């Protein structure tokens, strides 16, 4: 602003908070179609996007805490989240 000191950067005073996972969400840039596919459709593309998403861990925690039943969240499908909730997420080869 004219007549005022400009010793501070334009965003000085703005919150230095960490961005929320929603702000980091790559799915917000790609659209929801990949993440809520028709039943029986592949979720591979969504999972690949999630792997590169900085908000992935928080996203998965949110989905588990809020019992999100549909779509890909945090890189996991509905079935994978269900197995994780039930504690049956063992892969073959982990058997005793
Ligand atoms: S982890 Fe996947 S579903 Fe979650 S915010 Fe990131 S891109 Fe979206």
TrEMBL record:
It comes from the Bacteria. Binds 1 [4Fe-4S] cluster per subunit. Following nitrosylation of the [4Fe-4S] cluster binds 1 [4Fe-8(NO)] cluster per subunit. GO terms for biological process: cell redox homeostasis; negative regulation of DNA-templated transcription. One of its GO terms (cellular component) is cytoplasm. Keywords: 4Fe-4S, Cytoplasm, Disulfide bond, DNA-binding, Iron, Iron-sulfur, Metal-binding, Transcription, Transcription regulation. Belongs to the WhiB family. This is Transcriptional regulator WhiB. It comes from Streptomyces boluensis.
């Amino acid at each position: 602003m004219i007549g005022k000191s400009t010793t501070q950067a334009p965003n000085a005073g703005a919150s230095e908070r960490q961005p929320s996972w929603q702000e980091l969400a790559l799915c917000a840039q790609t659209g929801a179609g990949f993440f809520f596919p028709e039943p029986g459709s592949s979720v591979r593309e969504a999972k690949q996007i999630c792997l590169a998403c900085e908000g992935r861990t928080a996203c998965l925690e949110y989905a588990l805490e809020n019992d999100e039943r549909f779509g890909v969240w945090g890189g996991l499908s509905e079935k994978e989240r269900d197995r994780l909730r039930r504690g049956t997420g063992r892969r073959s080869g982990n058997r005793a």
